[in-house]
Recover the amino acids of this structure.
């Protein structure tokens, strides 16, 4: 019982700690704690009553046979709590353990917030731990690779500038078979909508760009996509603890929209990128809220459907259940709109999972955990057992999940636990059921 | 013995209240200064409405998800905190002392009610201790500090109970009781008991973030 019994070999973490000494660790830890944290960390560390009320909140705990070392406060105790108790002086091996907990055993989903009476934010403690790990150069290899890509290309997937525009043109070409006058307008100044995506879309989920273009075209939206970097709204640096780079990413994203003088940014169905835009990255870059209005596609689809800009020729056969993505529901209150959109799109009932809306269980992929890649995959899917049980109990065949992370995580979960369910984006359903302009 | 009694009920009470009040002011002021210096990005989002919304919703038993999922702990926590605060403030023996010194008094509990409330506090402390010893997750979390504050909170009530019922040596117990009470008061700003005031702010902050930015409830 405890982190030392479940260590996972990761070359990023291993190489990282091999370069450390206790002196170096202590210096860095204290630099972060004294330089970057303040009353928040101090108060949380002091007033956590070790009451265990938050224990039941966490799907890691629920999915691991109630192993106490996975409880939220226990994860704090084994990471930042240990650093504070030892004035930052711990061994490199301990840093390895702490990094594994912070990066791969907490999704920063904040469900535990709903359980803690004194308002301790465990996710903040974990992200602070990640910040220290980043400064120590101890990050899981796969997610670090995406962070490197961010800093070299301003997108997460090493998409080159010409590949980006090529991909958009390719999708435009494809779509013109179906919608002869469809365009993906690049760099159109003053457009109503600036549509931004995450880099995995051009990299390997191009059909999502196709679908979005089809929907925007059908709804006759005046829209554009930027031809230059800034188009990727995702942010793995927020999750590795590379806050400097996180700030640069958000600035690039907003500035690219400002340069085009668009009215607002519409983001694809992604959770973490949305969090970065309204809650985290904007703050680092010095914007209290955001300089250009941003809407998530759940809100945007809601507008299109309720204003009649998209009409349906059929409804998607229900019943369905849904995955409330933490970052847009617990993080941004879109639970009601999401349900309204589903009610419009689906013929049949919405069967709720036992924990829903802002009390939902995380898909176990969020917070950068899925981005830590193959070494951590089995552990991640194991942590989704509690969610899998809730999904199975709904007895339905379709999960609607308007978030890339949720999709990826639930894909693995459905497979591993043999749930026999299919997972849909809202865009998939709208594209399938909408009235085509030409017909 | 009498001299000692006079000392613990006289100068020592003054001292412990002074430590409590000055210590609390110091802790709050320095924490606020630190927050202003280092947590501007959190302070900027503080919001009265959402702060109170959160505090209010968390004060209602079984309203927040955490309370719902820990029903026994919830009952014990509420009973414990109510009795812990109300008993000493409304105990007639305490009020008599205050009246003798300053000529002010207020409504008091009947002695038998106060006795029951004292027992409830002791039982609650035993329950908390039991969780620390036997409930796996809580045992994993527990540190010396947690035992310390549990002891600090329990002792005034245990000694008070024994003294009231004149069990063992009354003189020794009453002095021990006053001493324990003084220690508890003085310890508030410097131990985890400080959650008494800091949690108001952490709760308010969480409420502000969830209400203003995350547009979701935090309970
Ligand atoms: S995974 Fe979610 S519930 Fe578990 S500790 Fe992290 S933020 Fe809390
Ligand atoms: S984080 Fe909150 S709920 Fe969890 S042990 Fe600490 S005080 Fe209790």
């Amino acid at each position: 019982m405890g982190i030392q019994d479940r260590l996972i070999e990761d070359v990023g973490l291993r190489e990282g700690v091999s370069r450390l000494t206790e002196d170096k660790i202590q210096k860095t830890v204290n630099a972060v704690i004294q330089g970057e944290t303040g009353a928040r960390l101090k108060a949380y560390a002091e007033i956590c009553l070790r009451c265990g009320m938050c224990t039941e909140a966490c799907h890691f705990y629920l999915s691991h046979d109630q192993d106490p070392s996975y409880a939220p406060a226990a994860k704090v105790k084994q990471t930042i709590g240990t650093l504070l108790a030892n004035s930052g002086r711990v061994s490199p091996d301990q840093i390895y353990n702490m990094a594994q907990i912070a990066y791969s055993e907490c999704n920063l989903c904040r469900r535990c917030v709903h359980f803690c009476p004194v308002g301790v934010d465990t996710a903040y403690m974990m992200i602070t731990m990640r910040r220290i790990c980043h400064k120590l150069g101890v990050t899981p290899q796969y997610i670090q690779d995406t962070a490197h890509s961010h800093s070299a290309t301003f997108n997460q997937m090493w998409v080159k500038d010409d590949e980006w525009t090529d991909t958009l043109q390719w999708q435009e070409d494809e779509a013109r078979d179906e919608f002869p006058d469809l365009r993906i307008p690049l760099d159109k100044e003053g457009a109503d909508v600036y549509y931004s995506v995450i880099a995995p879309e051009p990299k390997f989920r191009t059909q999502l760009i196709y679908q979005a273009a089809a929907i925007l075209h059908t709804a006759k939206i005046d829209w554009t996509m930027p031809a230059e970097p800034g188009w990727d709204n995702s942010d793995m640096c927020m999750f590795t603890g590379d806050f400097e780079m996180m700030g640069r990413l958000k600035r690039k994203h907003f500035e690219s929209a400002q340069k085009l003088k668009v009215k607002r940014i519409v983001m694809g169905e992604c959770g973490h990128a949305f969090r970065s835009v309204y809650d985290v990255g904007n703050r680092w870059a010095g914007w209290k809220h955001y300089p250009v209005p941003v809407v998530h596609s759940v809100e945007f689809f809601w507008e299109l459907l309720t204003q009649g800009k998209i009409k349906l020729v059929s409804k998607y056969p229900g019943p369905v259940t849904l995955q409330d993505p933490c970052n847009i529901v617990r993080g941004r209150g879109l639970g009601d709109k999401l349900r309204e959109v589903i009610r419009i799109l689906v013929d049949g009932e919405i069967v709720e999972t036992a924990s829903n809306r802002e009390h939902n269980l995380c898909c176990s992929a969020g917070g950068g955990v899925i981005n830590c890649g193959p070494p951590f995959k089995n552990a991640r899917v194991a942590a989704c057992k509690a969610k899998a049980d809730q999904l199975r109990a709904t007895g339905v065949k379709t999960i609607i999940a308007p978030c890339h992370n949720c999709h990826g995580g639930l894909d693995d979960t459905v497979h591993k636990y043999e749930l026999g369910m299919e997972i849909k984006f809202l865009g998939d359903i709208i594209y399938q059921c909408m009235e085509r302009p030409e017909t | 013995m009498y001299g000692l009694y006079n000392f613990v009920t006289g100068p020592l009470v003054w001292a412990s209240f002074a430590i409590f009040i000055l210590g609390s002011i110091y802790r709050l002021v320095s924490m606020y200064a630190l927050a202003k210096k280092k947590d501007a990005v959190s302070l900027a989002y503080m919001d009265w409405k959402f702060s109170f919304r959160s505090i209010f919703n968390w004060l209602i038993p079984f309203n927040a998800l955490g309370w719902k999922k820990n029903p026994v702990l919830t009952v014990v926590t509420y009973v414990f905190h109510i009795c812990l605060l109300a008993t000493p403030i409304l105990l007639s023996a305490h009020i008599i002392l205050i009246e003798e010194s300053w000529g002010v008094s207020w409504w008091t509990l009947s002695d038998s009610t106060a006795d029951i409330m004292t027992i409830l506090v002791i039982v609650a402390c035993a329950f908390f201790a039991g969780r620390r010893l036997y409930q796996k997750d809580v045992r994993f979390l527990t540190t010396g500090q947690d035992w310390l504050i549990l002891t600090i909170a329990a002792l005034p009530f245990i000694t008070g109970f024994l003294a009231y019922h004149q069990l063992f040596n009354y003189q020794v117990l009453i002095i021990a009781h006053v001493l324990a009470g003084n220690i508890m008061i003085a310890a508030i700003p410097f131990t985890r008991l400080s959650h008494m005031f800091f949690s108001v702010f952490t709760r308010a902050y969480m409420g502000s973030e969830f209400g203003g930015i995350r547009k979701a409830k935090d309970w």
Q: What stands out?
A: Chain B touches chain A through 52 residues (CB under 8 Å). Chain B has a mean pLDDT of 96. The CA atoms of residues 61 and 67 of chain B lie 7 Å apart.
